[in-house]
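worker-03 picked up job from queue 'complexes'. Input manifest follows; four sequence lines, order preserved.
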Amino acid sequence: MRLHVEARLDYDFPQDVESLLHLEVAHEAGQTIVAESLTFDPPIAHARLDDPATGERRVVFRHQGSLKMTYVAMVDLTPRDTALAGAPQHAVADLPIEVLPFLRGSRFVESDRFEQIARHEFGQLTGGDRVEAILTWLRTHVAYRSGCSNATTTAIDSYVNRRGVCRDYAHIAAALCRASDIPARLVSAYALGLEPPDFHAVIEAYVGGRWRLADPTGLASPANLVRIGEGRDAADIAFLTIFGEAFMTAQSVTVRDISQAPAEPAAA
Amino acid sequence: MRLHVEARLDYDFPQDVESLLHLEVAHEAGQTIVAESLTFDPPIAHARLDDPATGERRVVFRHQGSLKMTYVAMVDLTPRDTALAGAPQHAVADLPIEVLPFLRGSRFVESDRFEQIARHEFGQLTGGDRVEAILTWLRTHVAYRSGCSNATTTAIDSYVNRRGVCRDYAHIAAALCRASDIPARLVSAYALGLEPPDFHAVIEAYVGGRWRLADPTGLASPANLVRIGEGRDAADIAFLTIFGEAFMTAQSVTVRDISQAPAEPAAA
Amino acid sequence: MRLHVEARLDYDFPQDVESLLHLEVAHEAGQTIVAESLTFDPPIAHARLDDPATGERRVVFRHQGSLKMTYVAMVDLTPRDTALAGAPQHAVADLPIEVLPFLRGSRFVESDRFEQIARHEFGQLTGGDRVEAILTWLRTHVAYRSGCSNATTTAIDSYVNRRGVCRDYAHIAAALCRASDIPARLVSAYALGLEPPDFHAVIEAYVGGRWRLADPTGLASPANLVRIGEGRDAADIAFLTIFGEAFMTAQSVTVRDISQAPAEPAAA
Amino acid sequence: MRLHVEARLDYDFPQDVESLLHLEVAHEAGQTIVAESLTFDPPIAHARLDDPATGERRVVFRHQGSLKMTYVAMVDLTPRDTALAGAPQHAVADLPIEVLPFLRGSRFVESDRFEQIARHEFGQLTGGDRVEAILTWLRTHVAYRSGCSNATTTAIDSYVNRRGVCRDYAHIAAALCRASDIPARLVSAYALGLEPPDFHAVIEAYVGGRWRLADPTGLASPANLVRIGEGRDAADIAFLTIFGEAFMTAQSVTVRDISQAPAEPAAA
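worker-03 finished. Artifact:
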């Protein structure tokens, strides 16, 4: 499948501050960037902080005044195997060491406090079956509603509120997985068919020998996500981190399936 | 300086659960392990989860019943340069990418919420001077007191309580550094002269081109710490993580300076 | 039924501070104080702050040093009607104005945040039937366990922890009632048969035209409680409030049924 | 001084729910209601829940659909004595019993957790002088900023955020007073000269034998406030409590000084 993704961010920076932009498609198996461009208007100098270990790509810039950032990419996507059912849970002793941090609590995922809930709600289930039960619980107990959470809302907050957006669903899901000794992380992505279109946050659980993607909101197909970044929670995968203050004036994300689009004519 | 460190942990595990032990001295520049032993009584099988990238060493085991864990090590220590004054702060663009996560909030360090406090309290100071001002603030505004915090106490909790132990001081310090755009992490260590002796938690701030150790409590000399592990906060550097339930029955830590000890006689 | 209640509190007051003692049996219909004594050792001056509107009785004193407080009372109790089933819920418009405050959130009862949970868990039930469903939920989802909560633990904390003591059960119950538009308050009491014996905290819900007692822990019979005080939550019904610092050195509560005890001989 | 106050609230109630309106001027010494009207468009039945003990006036109604509520009052105001300097602090033993609840924590005022801060920041000051120091601290450490807090923001949140609106200032002020053993409550009011005009929240501290009004934001003169209600915190003095869901479509408050307005002609 070939997807066309586009993100437009218009921000106003009242002071001269640094910002870190993390919205470019990651270099990862299963998703090939056919073409892409990242443009700033006005044009500004920026430094790359790409991470060869994870394939994540970040840009840092310093700016004062208004700024339009536009990212466009064409990506060939191989649908991912996101099967959870039956995937066995690993003993901690059998986990790769780079997976260990995703067993622990993080800024927005107080997994250490969800142990009794996880035990009570999901009983004897393990591995992928337990992750599926967690996802089912979320879809039946939490309502998708914007405006009920903000940038400091944690998994406990959302678990009690029973309302939230993709970020909040992902935080509860990660909390319940980690409290069940299943490594879980958040993934930022471009999602086809998300309504309303926006940056999306989903989770990945480590069961059956590898990370497996799932969308706790159920709004997008995890098989067709275009990955941007991954981390312990929303703090790690923000698409824009401002080291100071800035104000959004406009923002849009679009994702289109262009698999069937006619090839560009050789000569226009 | 040659230090002799010893940790004894007696725990009771009512069920058969996995545990992760992270109390061995790290393989790092400046500290050479001359001799060491980690013993379990009764003897049990355990798997190593050492991290070559950081030098941290972890052991995972599964056990039911009572268990005595004893770790003894003799370590040659080269005093560290912990000078903070004048060390310049880095632009985000100039940070090594592996340092970036330590700018973000974590389970017990809600640094995103400390921005106004940091701005108000530490004004125009930057880099190592700012870290020093943060340490001074802690020593004049927070009282060392055990029993006022627990395993879920966060930096905000401790900032309001104005009381805590090493872990709480370190969390506030890390929160104020990160809120000032200075990378900061927690370090677990054996500390000479700590009273009462215990595992110690200190911080490291990234200024002037490298990580620099500091003890927010002021109880130990950061120059003479023997490092065990490092991470975003207490969640990452727990000396014992139990994936289930266990009860401590006894625990002790001792650290002695044996630099002047007479050499062992060649033949006893 | 005739009950003999006794509370012994030994405290050490390092500084000269005021304290408010609220452990005397309330003057209320259904419980008649046959005899009682409140003694301080050493003897100290104290002022009464009794509340004729509620029948609650409080004593304020100022003291430095160690102090033994002993309260003994013999109380004739008329078993209370605590029936909940079928008791109708009132419209807000039909509530007595003095009941209105118990619809609102309080220090340890963040009822405003439990609305979605209440709606989801207890659906169409109203009034006493809904209160009963809340009590049933608590007894099947929360484990009685001391040492998992402290003086700052709130209803949200306990709802997530799924563990707690009488105070925590009462806070969750009150939160779910208020979030259901059912007035609820906490009541401190002496409870026959409580194991281990201690001051007890239960709730009262306003349904079917009056306050009805219930014990969310299920450990004591609400019909046979001896009431001390009532309030929005634990903050209002503390048996001892110290305006400064003090340390408990010993404390005990005993409640005995002396209905069948032989009369004291006329002449010993 | 004669003030003209007007509040217009347009709400949409998607379901048929009860609401409690608490925006009428209280019957209290120092403020005489010369004329007033409360109108609903469309006209609806409503019940009064006035409190003769406090002079507070509330209306309860049930409605579905859109509703315009308009309250207009003309009030003659005797400027209040709000002097704080030198007003002595009372021993708890000397407080009227109805004042005691305002020493305790409440939903948005976790005063029990501010004791060390209060001790550290305001040292040996007592009574009205201490309240003044608290007000000064607020005006120099907290910035008035809307959009940084919401209906669940507590005093601890605001103390850390260092930003907020009148409600948040009042919560911090009340927390610091109560943590200093000075009774404090919140008061809702119409305030002349408030910019932008809105319902206002201020505090009252009990020192020197009576409640004394103060505006922690410094935006309005406490001497010229028209009181609506009082309570432990924002939970008690909400101008509109909806027992279900509703959406504001428009809202405005105006307060004008009409002392110098020409008298109405005897015959128009």
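worker-03 released lock.
Chain A touches chain B through 33 residues (CB under 8 Å).
The mean pLDDT of chain A is 96.
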